[in-house]
Design goal:
By secondary structure, the protein is an alpha/beta fold. It has 21 helices and 5 strands. The chain has 2 domains: 362 residues, no CATH class; 128 residues, no CATH class. The protein has a 5-stranded mixed sheet.
Length: 512
Amino acid sequence: MNTPVLSSLTPQRASLILVSFISLLHLFLAFHVELGGDEAHYALYGLMPDWSYFDHPPMVGWLQMLPMWLAPYDWSARLVPIGLYILLNALLYRVTIELFCKRSSNSAWQHPQPTPTNHWLGFWSLAVLNSCLILVLMGMAMLPDNPLMVISLALILTVIKLLETNEFKAWLMLGFLIGLAALSKYTAVTLVISLILVMLVEKRWDWLIQKGLWSAVAIASLMIIPVLYWNAQHDWASFLYQINHGTGHATWELDSLVRTQLTQLASYTPVIFIIGWWMILKPKHYQDPRTRLLLLFALPVTALFAWGSGYEESLPHWVSLSWLLLIPIIVHWAWCHRDTKWLKPLAYVHFILAGTLVLLAHSLLYKPWIPFDDHKNPIQGDYGWPQASQTAIELQKSLTDDPKELPLFVSNWSITSHLAWYARPQPVFMTGNRQTQYDFWFGQAKAGTDGLLVVPHYEKTPPKTQIAAHFEQCTLLKEEPLSVNGAVVVTYRYYHCQHFSPPLPSAAIAEP
């Protein structure tokens, strides 16, 4: 893997150059690209801080509070995720060095000894990280997974310390990190499962009688009080939503699991996907305690979403923690087999193709310059919302002097954040039965309300009418196609709708 070009560099300097380049690219795009749906959603979290939220614990909102208070703009919503991604790179470098350059497989925890492997492993871990398109894109878009991944790497470093020294202060740090993880995402429960697995596999039964362990449990329990408090005030809505979200479908379908895995293969690159699954499934890879530690933290996340995707397809970023933890293992394995004839050509192909894809995707975010047929551009879901919001407000003003008499609506919960962010501080309501965070922010539209409905072409048009949670009738006011390079990226349709019929009481969290 070592090349003549890099031979004059230190691994630390090469890593700094790589991370600086990606960070500057993210900062540039932050000022030139409108917010995606998730980004807008969590920016609104920051504008409306709370103890917790309907669909996630509060960390992602708390982190956005300061930038939203200082400068509630698109670019400021990306400052925290860019900073978290820099920290993620630094921690991944350190975890790789700590495990595979400071200790051998024979004396991993008790008396760690430096191995012959040099620190270029740290750089190559960052190179692999930044060749995974979805992870790089997450580096500028706020998601609950962003703080969770950073916290998890810090937690693994703490676990290494506990395996070595069992220091009380390391236990306190462990409790603090578990608490932060629980405030970031509900799937942080897999970290607790991983810790139990580490204790069992490493036969650390003495941990159970350590005052440090129970101090850590106490700290983590205290830190999740905001989540418990919010849920107690809202009929445990968040917990019920998560349970319904994971078990809402009655039957388990292999096709759904296969589609999820194919999406992950494309998102994390075929090379990383195939080698990663091989690392997880082959028992031999659990013999080295360094590799085993990372696998024990990756396995519960992988198993949770692999099985759950049979009931409902998992989004690729939901398993980002698992693939992140597999990167140092893959890099170490590749380093140990670097003399294999086919490995270097495969690495070159991977980095050339994946690196090109990363740069191409970022260029398309800046400007969709590649020609696509009308309504076939892959960025259509996150394009044109500032213009659509402006048009909606102008139409609203042409029909009424008081926006409260003709509130804004969307036809699907998944696009609410776009309009709510760019039309703020106006509330945005939804047609359909699904309960969302916006019901807690804006309430439900009153029966008989008229509204201005904004519908992009990829949603059902004309909109449903004369059923519960929809309007009696809708009249098309305007159709607005937005084009780039002569091709229509997205078309927005604006409807003047009358007499909203509220959802049925039994459909509070329907339509998962």
